Amino acid sequence: MEVDHDRQLVFCETLCVSSLTSPTSQRGTTSLGLLGALQPSGEQVVARLSAPVVTTQLDTKNITFERNKTGILGWRSEKTEMVNGYEAKVYGASNVELITRTRTDHLSEPLKAKPKGVSFC
Prior knowledge:
Blueprint: E1 2-4, E2 9-11, H1 33-37, H2 42-49, E3 53-59, E4 64-67, E5 69-70, E6 77-78, E7 80-83, E8 86-89, E9 91-94, E10 97-103, H3 109-112
């Protein structure tokens, strides 16, 4: 699932494991293997080929961490929180960049003109 909070849309794709299995090999596993079991249906292939390719990555090249503080000026201390019964120190992260790239060069002109708010679910 991919969530676009700005446009309030959710894009999702379901991977289904094929019910077809190959004969069992001597080791007790199928010779088809996991990749063979995840063969996409024709409908899934068409959906992928008619949708833009979106990649998202986190750029942490310039990231910095700083302990969060709590309290009033003069009475400040380092902030801690309880997480699953453990006392955890709280840090803030700065200069984290989320990069999203969309590739559409494989799409036909009518598909490129398709409204961007269309969900693929």
